[in-house]
Amino acid sequence: MKIFSPLYARAMLWARHRHAPWYLGGLSFAESSFFPIPPDVMLAPMSLANPRRAMWFALLTTLTSVAGGLFGYLIGAYAFDAIEPWLRESRYWGAYEQAVAWFGEWGFWAVFVAGFSPIPYKVFTIAAGALSMALLPFTLASLVGRGARFFLVAGLMAWGGARMEAVLHRYIDRLGWATVAAVVLGVLVYRA
């Protein structure tokens, strides 16, 4: 059943849209402070669709993500009391508690690791503000961590270019169904 091929084709079409960089910047900003979808889902196809502009997309993603991280920092610093009840009820509370523990142990490196890894960066931006982390180290760790991640993604996609796009298009349905099966298996194992 070919469900993923049309979605892939549509994503690649959107990745070539003239307003796509604006959407990428908005998504990157929002994800760093409150939105759950990472910008990699736009950065990767945009870099694949237009390899010559991949480094520009990575820079745009990095800068808007750090700006969003600074907004998250402000939320933590000035509005934490307002969001804490919601945060406690959300799936992010455990990650927030982990972020607080990491800040106590590693400080700067906690932000760097969260910026580079798939750990919810937004939780660390809010925690950094709530714990009054010094703004300059926070910003530098964010720039380095987020930049490393986004330039790596864009670079890999640009390197693959048209060849990778063709291979993905050929195997996207198999990859999609394998991912669905892995998620279902993961949920079953987790519940067991």
From TrEMBL:
VTT domain segment(s): 53-157
GO CC terms on record? plasma membrane
Q: Mind telling me which Pfam families this protein's record contains?
A: VTT_dom
- Name the residues that span the membrane: 20-37, 57-80, 100-117, 123-143, 150-168, 174-190
**Record's superkingdom?**
Bacteria
Keyword terms of this UniProt record: Membrane, Transmembrane, Transmembrane helix
What name does UniProt use for this protein?
DedA family protein
